[in-house]
Fold:
Amino acid sequence: KGEGKFIVGGNWKCNGTTESIAQLISDLNAGTITKDLEVVCAPPFVYLAQTQASLGPPFEIAAQNVWTGAGGAYTGEISADMIKDLGINWTITGHSERRALCGESNEIVAEKTAYALSLGLKVIVCIGESLEERQNGSTLAVCCAQLKAVAEVVSDWSNIVIAYEPIWAIGTGVVATPEQAQETHAGIRKWLAAAVSPEVASKMRIQYGGSVNAGNCDVLAQQDDIDGFLVGGASLQGDSFITICNSAV
Ligand code: PEP
Structure:
């Protein structure tokens, strides 16, 4: 395991209404978290203020994405400065949906990550391979290339959490087996030790993401190199998300 607390993220993606988010927040606030862990929920930007006003501890709040740098003439974008200005401490970068649907390259994700870190934000950097890449044996090569782009522009990794999310497991109901997840997490940690430093490798928290639910979280959480989860679909159900939080090791 990496150092620090088990960390679970809830990625609400582009879901919700004022009413459904109020209900989700109320369910989360009413839940009983029995473990000492970090929990970070990422609502759509337009519901950040609502979430901030009503979601209580231990839940923290994250943005789902940020622009590559400071604000300016970037219509429709949100800068890390604005997230910081709201008093939010976290952002996700490099989610596979942004890489695939919005054309974010490894370099763009790295630039976003570096800029957010430079402002003092903590960043959950998502990496992961496609089904084709897994089948042709390039899983680690793909994940490490994604991290190498980050290593080229970031020197202090202490505010980074890595989320390993195989694309074939995201939103599909096909969860990685504990062995598959463990093997890849261990490979990522080994790469960090060689390419960044043994210290960063041993401290890094690596989340697994991809069809995590209340039924499969316990066995995954037991794996040596799994330090938390990034949860999509199941994070929209308060009771499931609380169960996943309580799988913390
Ligand atoms: C995600 O999008 O980060 C994710 C893991 O989604 P899901 O849990 O729905 O597979």
Notes: The domain at 7-238 is CATH 3.20.20.70 (TIM Barrel). The chain has one domain: 7-238. Strands lie at 7-11, 38-42, 59-63, 90-93, 122-127, 160-164, 206-209, 228-231.
